[in-house]
Amino acid sequence: MNNEELTFESYMAAETAKVEAALARILPAGWDVPEELRAAMGYSLMAGGKRLRPLLVLAAAEALRGSKEAALPVACAIEMVHTYSLIHDDLPAMDNDDYRRGKLTNHKVYGEALAILAGDALLTHAFHAAAQAYRIHGVPAEQVLNIMDDLAVYAGACGMVGGQAADMLGEQGLTRLEDLQYIHTHKTSDLIVFSLLAGGRIAGANEKQLQALESFGYAIGLAFQIQDDILDVTGDEQKLGKPTNSDEKQQKVTYPFFIGLEASEARVRELTLEGKQVLLAADFPRPERLLQLADFLMRRDH
Amino acid sequence: MNNEELTFESYMAAETAKVEAALARILPAGWDVPEELRAAMGYSLMAGGKRLRPLLVLAAAEALRGSKEAALPVACAIEMVHTYSLIHDDLPAMDNDDYRRGKLTNHKVYGEALAILAGDALLTHAFHAAAQAYRIHGVPAEQVLNIMDDLAVYAGACGMVGGQAADMLGEQGLTRLEDLQYIHTHKTSDLIVFSLLAGGRIAGANEKQLQALESFGYAIGLAFQIQDDILDVTGDEQKLGKPTNSDEKQQKVTYPFFIGLEASEARVRELTLEGKQVLLAADFPRPERLLQLADFLMRRDH
After folding, report:
1. What is the pLDDT of residues B202-217, one digit of tens each?
2. In this complex, do A32 and B93 lie within 8 Å of one another by their Cβ atoms?
3. Which of B113, B131, B162 has the CB atom closest to A148's CB atom?
4. Whether the complex's predicted ipTM surpasses the cut of 0.90
5. Euclidean distance between CA atoms B45 and B21, whole angstroms
């Protein structure tokens, strides 16, 4: 391990700890909410994971020398939206999964009805969390309103939910790479792009910078999802926390299915490079962490 | 029918038509969304109903001589949130209802998975709709941000979803009127209060006026829900579009169960009067429509 990697690892550990602490404060114990609902929300929200989206919010703010403190509520918001989508995806009517990250899924612990409501509540509460950037940290109302509006668009029918619906509707008959790319873009990349834009907006990014963040996001978002498809074929079950080849068993069509494993790996490298080049060509005072995150996502084994 | 009633009826018809037209524009045909998802969202959103919450948004704006045009996006937003809650409530894991307003429920037509996603998408899209008050109608960003934040709070775990969870968790063992009141307040009144506050904010209400709208909302909200409980015992099945005594059959505890039918009817009248008095005591230039709506809700037979 060289020094640079060590530095990045310490950075990641510190940022992740910040996010975990902020998330833990988001559903306070004294909250006037039915206790079982709060427990169901907290169970999935605090179940670990890479916290990738919050890290991207913070790194995008840092790229523009913005306040990471002010970006933290929005980092929590996007993680709540991501968590709700996992809870609903795991439901019997959807993917019907019993385990996620080695833990029982929400509905296996709290029952289906409460799992549906916990997801609804996390999604709704995300908008309240985002508003804190204005209320507590004094980010201008216009910027925070834009972030909340973006969240609605990138997480909604035109974004993540649309991707999820297309995935579900196409489960039997997906025959074109474009269709798979539509699903990947909306199911995965849209929230990644949102995270980068939100961090940028917190730091007062201009239009050109927002466009660069968007292009960077779509490039690394697709790379991330192709890498997911690859790991599903080649990965270590222990590290992934789920059986490999599960997509194949479920007859899910993936990137390697269309273009092969080697070409998929090349595509991940290309997309990551493309994304980094876009970022470097734009005027960011401190893009280092974003660039490192892009490499980290490409190299990850789970 | 006297003239005043005729006038109110024409007013209601005109306002409802405005809301229906705005809702119909919210999910445009050319929208880049999987068509079946859009259809599932539209099916429930355009399934009729009283449109009470949107009417309250518009009437609250009118009470302060605010722009009803500017209030319309928020009126649509609250109806989308109300609709999503009905779709999720009707799911097999929740109330397991096959019919609503005489039509098949969403999951009976589109399947459970798409019904869950259509609900998620409507909830998410509501925040985008609300943001239009700023983008298109120029309501100050601070006010619109407050409205979006309110929506997250009143519709979330502390609000509607919390009430729904309490209702579900208490289905077997509800023994105290306070518990029922908690459920009624959050499941029903919170969205009514939100609607009134949002209309007020659009029109630039001051703190005192917002407080009056809140008190008015909690009074007529509870009256509305008690009236629902009463109609469930005494109502005309045809008008209600559902079998009466259904709550009793499902062993749901209602207001008449605790204090009897007559006392429940008296309570509806008292609460309505209380709400109207609060409103009259505050400084509203044109409170007439809100007062008429309160009476209308008390007198309704479905």
Report:
1. 999 999 999 999 999 9
2. no
3. B131
4. yes
5. 12
